[in-house]
Amino acid sequence: MARLARPAPADTAYLEVRFVNLLKQPLVLHGELHYGGPGKLGKRVDEPYHEATTIDDGAVEVRRSGKAVQRFSLERAPELQTLLAAFGALLGGDAATLQKFYDLRAQQSGEYFTLTLTSRPMGGAKSKPVHVVVDGVDNEPGCFSYYPADGDASIMLLGSRAGSALPQPLTRAALESVCHRLAP
Amino acid sequence: MTSGPTTSGRTTSGPVAPMRRAGLIALWLAALALLALLVRHELIISNDLRSFMPPPQTADQRLLLDQIGEGPASRLLLLAIHGDQTTTLSRALVTALRGDPRFTQVLNGDTDLSALDPALLPYRYLLSPTLDHATFDAPFLREQLELRLQDLGSPGADLLKPLLPRDPTLELLALAQRWMPARAPELRDGVWVAPSGEALLLVQTRAAGFDPVAQGETIEQLRATFARLPGAQPTQLEISGPGYFGVLVSTRTRSEAEWLSLIGTFGFAMLLLLAYRSAAVVALVALPLASGALAGMAVTALVFHWIHGITLAFGVTLLGVAQEYPIRVFSHRRADASARASLDAVWPLLRLAIASACIAYVAFFASGVTGLQQLAVFTIVGLLVAGIATRWLLPTVMPARFHDVAAAPWLERVRDRLDALPRPRWLPWAVLAAALALLWFAPAPFWQNDLAALTPVPPALLQREGILRDALGAPDVRYLLVLEAPDDQRLLKLSERIEAEVEKWKDLHFVDDVELPSRYLPSLDTQRARQQRLPGRSQLEAALARAQQDLPYQPGLFAPFVEDVDSARTLPPLTPKAFAASALGARLEAMLSTRDGHSLALATLSGVRDGAAIASRAAALSADDGQVSLLDLKGASESLVAGYRARIGRALLVALLLLAGVVALAFRNVRRAWNVIAPMSLATLLVLAVLRADGIALSLFHLVALTLAAGLGLHYALFFEREVPDVAEERRTLHATLVCVLSAVLVFGLLALSSLPVLRAIGLTVALGVAFHFCLSTQMARRRM
Q1: What is the C-alpha to C-alpha distance for residues B387 and B158, in angstroms, rounded to an integer?
Q2: pLDDT surpasses 90 at B278
Q3: Quick check: B154 and A79 CB within 8 A?
Q4: Interface contact flag, B187 A25, Cβ < 8 Å
Q5: Both B345 and B422 in a single domain?
Q6: Which of A45-59, A133-147, B682-696 has the highest mean pLDDT?
Q7: Looking at the predicted structure, is the pLDDT value of residue B158 above 60?
Q8: pLDDT recorded at residue B116
Q9: Model confidence at A85, in pLDDT bands (50, 70, 90)?
Q10: Which of A118, B43, B194, B213 can pair with B301 through a Cys bridge, CB separation 3.0 to 4.6 Å?
């Protein structure tokens, strides 16, 4: 896991596909992720619209051109909190934090790896688990997939993969297999 | 004081055997205990300032009495959590306090989407101003749906998803934001934080601000709730606000008064021990006063059932005169006569003093103010019972062994000195001239009308409150914007009409925010107008279909939205009464009241910078549809106190005239009456002059203290003026007066050292008064043998 750690600050391009139950087609976003050290994350959307989100010590700010800044707390969005903890801990190489939030399962095969994280119950046992899957080669994460409890999914292709063409038709299974193809 | 050889005497006919005496004392104490029990059960001691104040004269005063301490701003507590994890604790505290009936509102900056009762959800289209400038047509909906798509792509998507099908225009969010204070602190983790990092909260208590007892319980509960929160141990909860200060000041006043009284009582007991060399006397001297006070309270309970705490304090102060009765009895006890015979010699004068004081207090009863009437009943009954107890009960329980104080050689030396003092005829006139000059030229304002100035809050706490109030944008305690209209609906329309002008006041920085009632509930007409603008079901479905074109939303996703809009079109518009069931409706209801069949709204203001400008512009808003005015609570309360003081002043003047009349009538000799009344009046004037020269502005408490001192002074003058058969009796008079003067100076002089202006006012005035009365009585009333 330590191989995934990145010195802050670090930036990487992403291509995100969100499968939302409320929508009949997935949302596709392009932009850049920013890691500014423990607790500090940034996400910029360049396509299909402009938006900048910063997360600093639990406070989330969303800025859009011509709109008032939206602010909310991570505590109001426990799922998001879990996700960001995973993301930040991975980039920071912080196994302790990661294990606080998740059960870890790692598969390694040569240079390919798949890290599966299943959230531990937070805020009451009733909450359904959230899954995060990281696929990569060597010390480079290629896919970061997030499965919130409501059945939606967000799959992010990172770094050099962000420029790759998306499978057509664009389905969850097709994209997942793109990510898993990284592994043998 | 009783050094040297004294005659140890045994009364010729010992009044009662020791065993029987002990039995009588036990009986007396038992009777007092019974009275105390009756008082405890029957007398309600009120903390409601309204029961202390006289009936209001002006509309503002009337409103003040309605609002005093119950106004929304004075019920606010400002909280700050210091330490780590403060934002988490802030959230936990809000969860713990919501639903606690002691708190009517708990805010920490968290946008509370549950503020609107779920049953009222469709009403959001009638409450939110969105429809005033938009219609739910295809272009508007298209823009909204595009924005929601971006929201679904943002990290906050999980928050939005449950809301989206029912509320795609996020009307709930718009309402929640409209109901937030306009100028709020910075948000961190979604809750208010101060620049220095502590989490800030605003809590409105159900208990009135003036009620230190109820506030004390509420604050205790608040602290307990906070302490129970996980992770609260290493942190600190800071509380501020008028209610908290009330608790603080009343606790501090009580503890300081108790502490000083304890020292005073100890000193008094030592003084009595020195003066009479008898522990029994020390024990017995308190009985008449205790009897008087308890009887006074019992009768007040039977007549009025309640009394205000301040009135009671005034009454007990005035009853201090009765402390002299037993002292006179003990000092005038003669070795050559029985206790009763000794008492018979001084009783006519004591009786005159008691009767004249009681008649004088009738003036208070005639004032027509409940508080003063209670004071009169309490004091008159107290003095009468203390007198009766002194005359008929005390002699039966007096110890058989005693020292005739007349035998003390030091007393004769003091008497000689006093006799040798020159008594120039011009001296009283010179004192009068000096006193009048001091009164005339003293620079300080004559009256202190701010009752709060007498029990001040430590400046550091006030400063801290100012910082927190400013940071929280919490309402000002001094001002209220008063809206008045024939009924609730016209009142809400008036509120809507002045919204634009109030926005201007904010732009001009007169004020940060005004919480108008229409912020929470628009008038029925406005709600109907918004209903008119809502599209019909088919129209909305068509617009929605067009707006959704090429957008990836699932077909039929917005059916709950269409349902809500459809039901909103036919809902009966919300009235304040129907709204009152929800949390926000309760807040609105607290703002509204009726007076003389009119509807009244009291809107709080926060961050008032220019009260005068708001007052004049508010008055200009009044029109046929209603009245708007700015109420200055401080101004109204000061005018009320000034009016009250004028009534007390008048009652005192009448009382003094009655007193002089009774004394003259009893003496049937104007010259002798003059010898008694003149020093008493001059000494009272002199106290006033000295206080003024010291730059002290006078309050109700000074007036009451002056009255007590005058009552004591009357005794000195009466007894000095008395014709006595021999020098021994004159010595006894001097002994009694010295014990009285010294004990009063000791007890009240201690109060004068207090750090609290209210205790200082009473202590200094009485101590000075007693000293002046004594000096002037020896000069003007005392006979020379």
Answers
A1: 81
A2: no
A3: no
A4: no
A5: no
A6: B682-696
A7: yes
A8: 62
A9: confident
A10: B43
| Record: contact A51-B157, CB cut-off 8 A | no
Q: Judging by DSSP bridges, how do beta strands B306-308 and B236-240 pair with one another?
A: unpaired
Query: pLDDT value at position B546?
Result: 92
Q: What is the DSSP letter of B558?
A: T
pLDDT digits (tens, 9 = 90+) for B386-416: 999 999 999 888 887 788 888 888 888 998 8
Give phi and psi for A14, each to the nearest 5. Answer: -140, 160
Phi, psi dihedral angles at B182 (to 5 degrees): -65, -40
The residue in chain A having the minimum alpha-carbon distance to the alpha carbon of residue B188 is A59
Distance of CA B686 to the CA centre of its chain: 30
- Higher pLDDT among residues B190 and B226, named by residue: B226
d(CA B494, CA B491): 5
Contacts of A148 in chain B (CB under 8 A): 158
> Taking CB atoms and an 8 Å cut-off, how many pairs form between chains A and B?
86
B536-561 per-residue burial string, b: 16 or more CB within 10 A, e: under 16: eeeebeebbeebbeeeebeeebbeeb
Give the CATH number, domain containing residue B435: 1.20.1640.10
Task: Identify the domain boundary among B386, B407, B428.
Answer: B407
pLDDT value at B71 more than 80: no
CA distance B159 to chain A (A): 6
Q: How many domains does chain B have?
A: 2
Contact A22 B152 (CB under 8 A): yes
Q: Which of residues 56-95 of A touch B (CB under 8 A)?
A: 58-60, 62, 64, 70-77, 79-80, 84
- Report the candidate in B512, B479, B457 with the shortest Cα–Cα distance to residue B241: B457
Domain that holds residue B426: 408-441+669-785
DSSP string computed for B376-432? HHHHHHHHHHHHHIIIIIHHHHS-SEEEEGGG-HHHHHHHHHHHHS---TTHHHHHH
Put simply, the answer to whether A22 touches B153 (Cβ < 8 Å) is no
The domain ranges of chain A are 7-180
Q: Tell me the pLDDT tens digit for each residue of B416-441.
A: 898 888 888 899 999 999 999 988 88
The pLDDT value recorded for residue B81 is: 93
Alpha carbons B624 and B761: distance in angstroms, whole number? 49
Q: What is the pLDDT of residues B449-484, one digit of tens each?
A: 776 676 678 888 888 888 888 888 788 878 889 999
Asked if the structure places residue B294 within a domain, the reply is yes
Last residue of a domain, one of B392, B407, B422: B407
Q: Is the pLDDT of residue A101 over 80?
A: no
Contact A15, A42 (CB under 8 A): no
The CATH class given to the A7-180 domain equals mainly beta
Q: Which of B753, B748, B784 is nearest to B766 (CA)?
A: B748
Confidence of residue B593 (pLDDT cuts 50, 70, 90): confident
Which helix (DSSP H) or strand (DSSP E) does residue B265 occupy? Answer: helix B242-276
User: Is residue A157 helix, strand or coil?
Assistant: strand
